[in-house]
Amino acid sequence: DAKTTQPPSMDCAEGRAANLPCNHSTISGNEYVYWYRQIHSQGPQYIIHGLKNNETNEMASLIITEDRKSSTLILPHATLRDTAVYYCIVRPSGSARQLTFGSGTQLTVLP
Amino acid sequence: GAGVSQSPRYKVAKRGQDVALRCDPISGHVSLFWYQQALGQGPEFLTYFQNEAQLDKSGLPSDRFFAERPEGSVSTLKIQRTQQEDSAVYLCASSLIGGGRSSGANVLTFGAGSRLTVL
Fold first, then answer.
1. Is A95:B45 a contact under the CB 8 Å cutoff?
2. What's the rounded Cα separation, in Å, for the pair B119 and B100?
3. What is the pLDDT of residues B21-61, one digit of tens each?
4. pLDDT value of position A92
5. Residue A2: pLDDT band with limits 50, 70, 90
6. Are B42 and A94 within 8 A, CB to CB?
7. Which of these, B73, B74, B36, B69, lies nearest to B55 by C-alpha position?
8. Which candidate, A105, B20, B98, B115, has a CA 20 to 30 Å from the CA of B4?
9. How far apart are CA A59 and CA A49, in angstroms?
10. Does B42 touch chain A (CB under 8 A)?
């Protein structure tokens, strides 16, 4: 699976949008971009995934660049409960294989 | 059930003891995964089941680690002769199908984990 690169930490003010970047320059054509997050003392939680089109759900939006070499996860109105480690993962379509986690980005939402 | 359930949530073992960690996946989920997460690190893959078949155990760190899923639902991760370096959170995840078809069905749902401390 393609490797991803994320900043180790970010801060965001409560109520503002949190934009979390991810680089995946070696992504191949059949690999999806997945985002998970892990709140302290909990298991990772699925947020969103996409292939090449932008995606939005009740939790977040995912913006994937046209060349697919990078993406941004957007939390439109961050709350204190969004403080967590956010993982960006690429994975082949239809794969039942395991997710490969990197170090992720520690997002801290400040009051 | 509504989610992936793991037990015990916390386990303290003396070095050399055997431990067993249980995972109840979401009912009907075909795939089941075990991960190990050391403090401050991302989860590391241990092993993967599709129904009762263990299709990948490449992440198991030693032959002291053994996992089973005999009836294709509940799974147990067993660690024999525990060592201090085995101290970690052990995460279980399940997904609906075992490959192919829609990528959405391959979303993994994780349990809260079992925190093992070896003294």
1. no
2. 43
3. 999 999 999 999 999 999 989 999 999 999 999 999 999 99
4. 77
5. low
6. no
7. B69
8. A105
9. 12
10. yes
